[in-house]
Amino acid sequence: MNNAQTKLYHYLVEQSPRITDDWLNAREINGQSVFSRDAGVEMDRQLREENRRLVTSITKAFIEDEDSLHKEWEAWIELVSDRRLAQDMPLHEAVQQFRVVREVYYNYIKEFSKTHDEVTVEDILHWNDLVNSTFDWVITQFLKRYNDKTEKEQQRKQTLINELSSPVIPITEDAAILPLMGDLDTERTAYIHKNTLEHCNEYEYDTIYIDLSGVHNIDTLVAHRIFQLIDSLKLLGVTTILCGLKPRIAQVAVNLGLDFTNIQMKSKLSHALQERMGDLNTSHN
Q1: What positions does the domain STAS occupy (predicted)?
Q2: Which of 181, 186, 245, 277 qualifies as a cystine partner to 214, CB 3.0-4.6 A?
Q3: What is the rounded distance in angstroms from the CA atom of residue 228 to the CA atom of residue 251?
């Protein structure tokens, strides 16, 4: 490291408040964006603190080995990516702001180079490579973490949706209803298959009423998975009664060659439950 680079480091550290100010002042009014100029005093304070920390950390690359700084950069990435995710920030906004802060940072290196005669062309080229390498690493890791966290959050939400939209509802000690609604896809039917078998095994139901009246569309693979569920329940000793089967879904099943012969069918769930209540009353008399 030459003398000019040491001077540049101290200069950038000294100018870091101005670098942050210039970045903040470059913002535009942009509705509900985290980075909107009118986002509020608290958001300004948070962004200022985050940017100052980023600028200070990146500037260390001029005096320290880049590999030794990865943990420090990763800590910043973890903190800020989690905040942006909680704020539901579109990813393209983060990319844009990284571009702006890098441009502002470059401007200060240019300003330093113009006022220090000892700076050579080789110095400028080296500093440009160093800044690019550092920013590229931080941006890449930020995007990776943000995408990973987004995918995990989407999986969590999907699991919650599956749990709420495919409940096994007990109606007696030995019987339950599985109401299915909306469009069924392979992921959701796989969850339904697993969840239903677990419930029947845990609570020892002997009868499950699968209500399909709320299902509007179904493809051949999903229809096959539903019949696989019925076969699996049969192996557990559970009787399945299909209710509310729509003509379109019945046609898909027929085209697949699925056999309805040994499956109890009812046009409506209410009819099936009335029949069950009648049987229970008869058995009690």
Answers
A1: 165-276
A2: 181
A3: 17
**Cβ-based neighbours of 48, under 8 Å, separated by 6 or more:** 20, 24
CA distance 84 to 95: 12
pTM: 0.64
Write the CA distances from 75 to 35, 64, 242, 258, 264, integer angstroms.
21, 17, 54, 56, 59
Angle, helices 66-86 vs 121-165, to 10°: value is 40
Residue range 165-210, pLDDT digits in tens: 678 999 989 999 999 887 788 888 888 999 999 999 999 999 999 9
Q: Which domains does the chain possess?
A: 3-162 (1.10.490.10), 166-284 (3.30.750.24)
DSSP count for the chain of H helices, then E strands: 9, 5
Whole-number Å distance between alpha carbons of 175 and 109: 74
For the stretch 82-137, pLDDT in tens is 999 999 899 899 999 999 999 999 999 999 999 999 999 999 999 999 999 999 99
**Phi and psi at residue 181, to the nearest 5°:** -135, 155
- Tell me if residue 259 falls in helix, strand or coil: coil
CB atoms within 10 A of CB 253: 20
End-to-end CA distance of the chain: 97
